[in-house]
Amino acid sequence: MIERDITPELLRAASQAPAVTLTGPRQSGKTTLCRAVFPNHPYRTLEAPDVRAFALEDPRRFLAHLPNGAVLDEIQRAPDLLSYLQGIIDDDPTPGRWILTGSQNLALLSSVSQSLAGRTGILHLLPLTWDEITRFGRSPATLEDALFNGGFPRIFNRKLDPARWLASYVATYLERDVRTVTNVGDLVAFQRFLELCAGRTGQLLNYSSLAGDCGISQPTAKAWLSVLEAGFVVLRLPPFFANLRKRLVRMPKLYFLDAGLVCWLLGVREPGQLRSHPLRGAIFENWVVCEIVKARANRGERHGLHFYRDRSGVEADLVVGQPGGGFTLIEAKAGATPSGSFFGGAERVRRHLSRLGPCELRVIYGGDEAQSRAAGELIPWRRANEALP
Known about the structure:
- The chain is of the alpha/beta class.
- The protein is built from 16 helices and 13 strands.
- Among the domains are: 7-124, P-loop containing nucleotide triphosphate hydrolases (Rossmann fold, 3-Layer(aba) Sandwich); 130-237 and 252-278, no CATH class.
- It has helices at residues 7-16, 30-37, 49-57, 59-64, 81-91, 105-115, 130-133, 143-149, 153-157, 162-181, 187-199, 207-214, 218-230, 259-265, 280-298, 344-353, and strands spanning 19-23, 43-45, 70-73, 98-102, 120-124, 234-237, 253-256, 305-309, 315-321, 327-333, 359-365, 371-372, 377-380.
- The strands form 3 sheets. Strands 8-9-10-11-13-12 form a 6-stranded mixed β-sheet.
- A hairpin with a 5-residue loop joins strand 9 and strand 10 (327-333).
- The chain is globular, with a radius of gyration of 22 Å.
């Protein structure tokens, strides 16, 4: 197992709260991480039918068998267990006794907020960042390889073919998680919905257009997107709002939390296809945004990310609030040749936002050379984490 960037934050949370809740998509490495970081904790997975039956039928006795705490995996499978865990924690609030993991964000956090409010730290483990990927023996050699492979640990740990593994992942997700969360009667339509979402990555999320293209109602489209977001498949990035006397766009933008999954849903079956793919720029933007999202999640930061776009077309891919005030504007450009034109749009955004505080401008691009220019920093894709304040 490689070292995960979230480990220090996980240990910090476990030193301060009696419970830690680690959420994230399936196969992001939650179980492996928790068992490695907390080797002395007993491990129970509620995915196992017999373990789940015991926890549901006799929760008091189930927890009595774990007097010193435990790692409880896929806790959303037995949400009522949290109510009984509340009393145990109140009786003995020793930090770090209970480590809870789950893959369905909304269902899990709803249960946690009701039963363990103030008793648990909450962290998100997302797919691998580029820095984490490079810790494996062999990492992708080119940008196209990086986009195609995505960031699920098993692909790298077992040197699997990404297309084959992601095909199985999507099928498993459709068959298990979707039906668990909501009543999706037409899986073929849902598969089509997934593909249409992939084709809209990096775009403003227009529910009416998405629903119409898929042949479903707007409420159904919103419900299905909520399911995808709950399972950490997609991310709806909110727009930036401020009193700038500008007509700002109010729709969110849609991204997937794994670029490899976007590629598979778009029918990309080998990295070479990405060199001339019509959505290459959007896929790269998706990769950049998710690198920033993952890096912040590993630091325990969940808020403060937006995009900027006004009605005249002035835009920046990411607006990151700085701790001491001001903003960092981040742009994604898939081109491999450094160019001053990369800074054009974001420079206009900087002029609008400068009245609210200082703005730094950083462009992550598809090349290999770092450059410091008058407008801002030009950062190679392999060093995307350096764009964060």
